Amino acid sequence: MSFMVWTDDLATGIDIIDNQHRRIVDMINQLHDTAQGKEKEAIGNVIEELVDYTLSHFAFEESLMEEAGYQFLRPHKKVHELFVKRVSEYRMRFNAGEDIADELHSLLSRWLFNHIKSDDAAYVSAVKSQMQTVTQNKQAGGWLSKAVKRFFK
Question: What is the pTM of this model?
Answer without folding.
Answer: 0.81
